[in-house]
Design brief:
The protein has 117 residues and is mostly beta strands. It contains no helices and eleven strands. Strands 2, 4, 5, 6, 9, 10 and 11 form a seven-stranded mixed sheet that branches. It has a four-stranded antiparallel sheet with strand order 1-3-8-7, with no helix packed on it. A hairpin with a 4-residue loop joins β7 and β8. It is globular, with a radius of gyration of 13 Å. The protein starts with a strand and ends with a strand. The model has no long low-confidence stretch (mean pLDDT 96).
Length: 117
């Protein structure tokens, strides 16, 4: 079983930065691709970023490309999302997820990010 715990969310002004963390328990983290997703009030959950198990491959949604950076430290079982140049439309609950095969099967509880204008 895998447990994912996000942290690092909070309230920030537009243009500011935050770094989210996701700590994984279990032995599958180092062998698994990971993703970040977000869900704003009244909207569906959307993909934000992906990182392969080794960290060598990443990709991003168009809305965050150039502003967000996903990374991981497999020695610490931790996934990160560095967010810069934040905008009010980035306000959402952010979730990390672990991918097994073709699906994201394990999800964290989420961390709230609020960007004020």
């Amino acid at each position: 079983q895998v447990q994912l715990v996000e942290s690092g969310g909070g309230l920030v002004q537009a243009g500011g930065s935050l770094r989210l963390s996701c700590v994984a328990s279990g032995r599958t983290f180092t062998n698994s691709a990971m993703g970040w997703f977000r869900q704003a009030p009244g909207k569906e959950r959307e993909f934000v970023a992906f990182i392969s198990w080794s960290g060598s491959t990443t990709y991003y949604s168009d809305s965050v490309k150039g502003r967000f950076t996903v990374s991981r430290d497999n020695a610490k079982n931790t996934l990160y999302l560095q967010m810069t140049s934040l905008k009010p439309e980035d306000t959402a609950v952010y979730y990390c997820a672990l991918k097994t095969g073709v699906r994201y099967d394990y999800w964290g509880q989420g961390t709230q990010v609020t960007v004020s204008s």
